[in-house]
Design a protein that fits this description.
Blueprint: H1 2-11, H2 18-34, H3 40-67, H4 85-93, E1 114-115, E2 118-119, H5 128-131, H6 136-143, H7 148-176
Antiparallel strand pairs: 1-2
Helix pairs in contact: 1-2, 2-4, 3-6, 3-7
The chain binds iron/sulfur cluster (2 copies).
Length: about 190
């Protein structure tokens, strides 16, 4: 099991393995259940990250409406629609059960969360690879907006909260049970 979790983390963006993904989720589920009292701060920060995404979302959406209809290389592909280990920590902290991973998807395949009506996920529940991806035309359009600096500050705030949440998760678990095996994050 421990080896599988490490394996999941090491391979998380290189090779999508539904079995390891499921095990990582089960492992986190157990951790959040068993150490719930120690993880209150992590859950609190995750809530603030979620709120940050909720504030940011309408600003991005405004620009999506202008830029995306003419796009010939849509970014809703598997490469951007895969939860990494930090995403799973965030989702578990919110009490959200991450959906199963579609097996066998290649990077260029349509994202598993793409429906004929668009994305089925609210922005605050989307994978990091999606939320932090801005193609050049979208970024240029965002930068031309009068509220861009406000947007940039919000994004920075969310990124800082995210780092704090992950650090807090590892230090809380280490404090609660120094012997518990968790994968090491290498950024
Ligand atoms: S965000 Fe960029 S790459 Fe993605 S659909 Fe819109 S224009 Fe295309
Ligand atoms: S999660 Fe949604 S917005 Fe992101 S790539 Fe997938 S379908 Fe597109």
């Amino acid at each position: 099991m421990e080896q599988d979790i490490d394996q999941y983390f090491i391979e998380n963006l290189r090779r999508r393995n539904p079995k390891i993904y499921r095990q990582a989720n089960q492992h986190l589920n157990t951790i959040f259940y068993s150490y719930n009292d120690h993880l209150k701060k992590v859950m609190h920060i995750a809530g603030k990250v979620k709120q940050g995404f909720v504030h940011i979302s309408p600003l991005i959406q405004k620009c999506n409406k202008e830029i995306c209809p003419a796009c010939s290389d849509v970014c809703c592909i598997s490469k951007h629609g895969f939860y990494n280990y930090e995403d799973l920590i965030y989702l578990h902290a919110l009490g959200f059960c991450p959906p199963d991973l579609k097996p066998g998807a290649k990077d260029s395949d349509p994202c598993q969360f793409l429906s004929f009506k668009g994305c089925v996920l609210e922005r605050c529940f989307r994978p990091s690879g999606c939320n932090w991806y801005f193609c050049d035309p979208l970024l240029e359009y965002l930068e031309s907006m009068p509220w861009y600096h406000e947007f940039d500050d919000l994004m920075r705030e969310v990124a800082e909260l995210w780092l704090k949440m992950i650090e807090e998760f590892f230090s809380s678990i280490n404090h609660a049970n120094p012997k518990l095996h968790l994968p090491q994050i290498h950024r």
